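Customer ticket, subject: "Can you confirm the structure for 6-pyruvoyl tetrahydrobiopterin synthase?"

Message body: Hello, I'm evaluating your service for our small team and ran a test protein. I'd like someone to confirm that this is what the system normally returns, since I don't have a reference to compare against.
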Amino acid sequence: MSPRSARRARLSRSVTFSACHRLHSKSLSDEENLKLFGKCNSPNGHGHNYKVVVTVCGEIDPVSGMVMNLTDLKECMQEAIMEPLDHKNLDKDVPYFSEVVSTTENVAVFIWDSLQKLLPQGLLHKVEVHETEQNVVVYKGEETIVK
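Agent reply: Thanks for trying us out. I re-ran your input and got the following:
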């Protein structure tokens, strides 16, 4: 390939936020919630220090040498992740979770949807949410087709 040929790359940036939540589904009885979610269903909730890794993928700009300016990505992540989620009770402070169980899977979907509104179309590649060192969700915008 010549130096002027287009190249694609992935660029990732991470942030950490703290939040609390209670795993509880309004569609289930208290007994069913306790059986399904165990200690994570405690009425007082529990907290995590979440780590989020956002990856964008695109063509390397021949002038700037970047897929995306990191400063712009940082600002998008601040608006989409830190402002709505950091030091919040997900179930009480984030309207999205008033009707959606605040599992890590759904946190990843919330972040994806929020970033999609801010980033150039087609640039977002994946969102990784690390709830703990052992529990990680990776979301790439997949949707299930309803039949």
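A couple of notes from the result: The mean pLDDT is 95. Residues 11-139 form a domain with the Tetrahydropterin Synthase; Chain A fold (CATH 3.30.479.10). Feel free to reply with more questions.
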